[in-house]
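To close the chapter, one final illustration. This time we ask the reader to focus less on the individual chains and more on the assembly as a whole: which components sit near each other, and how the overall shape emerges from the parts.
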Amino acid sequence: MARRLGLWWRFVAVVLVGLAPGLASGRELSVADTHVEDYPTVQALKLMGKLLADRSQGRLTLKVYHSRQLGEEKETIRQAQMGAVDLVRVNLAPFNELVPETVVPSLPFLFRSVQHMHKVMDGPLGAEILKAFERHGLVGLAYYDSGARSFYTAKKMIQQPADLAGLRIRVQQSPLFMAMVEALGAIPVPLAYGQVQVGLSTGVVDGAENNIPSYQEAGHFRTAGYYGLTEHTMAPEVLAMSKKVWDGLSPEDQIMIRKAAQDSVPMMRRWWQEREESSRTMVVRGGAMVEEVDKKPFALLMRPLYDRFAADPDLKDLVRRVQAVE
Ligand code: GTR
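The assembled structure is written out below.
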């Protein structure tokens, strides 16, 4: 009898050990971000991971691959489409060719203020643009702040469009961004983010455009010390998931993931504001000059891009609806 019981317990133990990994092992989702670990987007992803782990009792976790560990943005987008990486945090610009709707919030001088941008992107129009990702193998989850992008060069302060004439300006890999620079009389040089610092220090490019936190984080301010606040676009960041992976999840897990992404947004915005201030202080302390600029002549020259890049009636209508948001 005792021997039979002993065998029984041994059987139970083997079955439990066999089941344990299945029970305990949840799902570790991977997410790629180009920025360094202390950057607000990466911090927000870590917060999202914490929310996910807490709410699923450790069954769903997020492994954040920051600092371009999985490659440049365009590569990580392709990886996500294939399901090789589960999520990507990327700026809207590298999506411009793939998801035409992303062109609209990237258009120059579209948003009147950060408040206007938040109102649009937090509302039905932002949701409509996130939904558009699904036709391209991705599921849009949330937007993160990215401030406004401005021009900086190694040679001179950009105060008016004429200052850009003939300069080689690095842009994101987006036809719209190339055209923006062309419209101002400069020569666009599309480069991945990770190549910009070398481009600036070797003189392959004379300048670039970005928000102040990226200008500081990537060290561009050391070589290109003139930053003129043109604030020509406020294209936000986006967090998207591989549709292949998404479709394999239960509806409960899908809801939990979307909610954790969106719940990381308010903190991200606070961190973003703080980072904009601290980065500005750091670049100025590091010797860079940051100056206000009259934006009107820039906006005027870039205006024809609306007809060119939002010629499609649906995109034109989306532009109109964005502008109508009070
Ligand atoms: C940053 C953005 C990155 C990347 C980079 C760039 O502002 O956060 O995702 O798009 O700009 O210029 O490539």
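Confidence is low (pLDDT under 50) at residues 7-24. The radius of gyration is 23 Å. With these observations in hand, you are ready for the problems at the end of the chapter.
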